Amino acid sequence: MAVLWLCAAVAVAWPSAAWAQATPAAAGSRPIELTVQGAWVGPASFGSANQTFLRQDGSSYTVFEAQSSLGSGVGVEANIGYPIGSRLQAEFTGSWSRSGLRTNIVGDVEDADNVTLTETIMRVSVEGGALWTLKTRARSTLFLRGGAGWMRELAGSGALAEDGLVANAGVGMKYWWGASTPGQQPRIGLRIEGRVAIRSAGVTLGERSVRVAPIASGGLIVRF
To answer: Which among 2, 83, 99, 168 is least buried, having the fewest CB atoms inside 10 angstroms?
Structure first.
């Protein structure tokens, strides 16, 4: 959440003297935007799961407890955006990320030592979304973005693969480089954003099938 507040604060606090009116696009121009970004994916908890046995009388007792969490990771994203209005842009996004999974085995009924297991989870996703422009200046744009789509998580070198759903929402900024000629828009820019991702299903090891994690990303934009 700190990333989201940082992006918003930068946009609001930017000195107004540094902003000029945006250069108008050429008549009828609707340039496609291609963005390639690096991403930091924040940690998320899987909760815990108990291994239980049944006694002869039908009651259960816990053999051990497994507490699992996903550490922070890194990834890459690619966005293709197409304007469908003066402020609204449709986006198609593909992403790949890699994070470390950590499971602590505790509370063994036979008083065995606690054990920590580690594994790597890779995630690929395909999403559709929308970007809404809040403020546009000569070189900068502040926007809100939301999207949802399909994901696949893989663990154990691909031995375990589970599908799920992902949704996200956040805020970001675009900054364009180079002076544009009259009637044209800059073609190269920088995009940064922070958002919250909500994942459902996929690889689940505890009682939580819905997980929430922050994501921060930044990269290069090219207009065609």
So the answer is: 2
State pTM to two decimals: 0.73
Q: What is the DSSP letter of 121?
A: E
Question: Which domain covers residue 135, as residue numbers?
Answer: 2-8+30-43+72-100+119-223
Q: What is the pLDDT of residues 35-72, one digit of tens each?
A: 999 999 999 887 766 666 666 676 666 666 777 888 89
CA pair distance 170, 167, nearest whole angstrom:
11
Q: Which helix (H) or strand (E) holds 177?
A: strand 160-177
Distance CA 110, CA 169 (A): 46
CATH (domain of 127): 2.40.160.20
Please check whether residue 175 lies inside any domain of the structure: yes
- Residues 6 or more apart whose CB falls under 8 angstroms from that of 100 comprise 70, 71, 73, 118, 119, 120, 121
Q: How many domains does the chain have?
A: 1
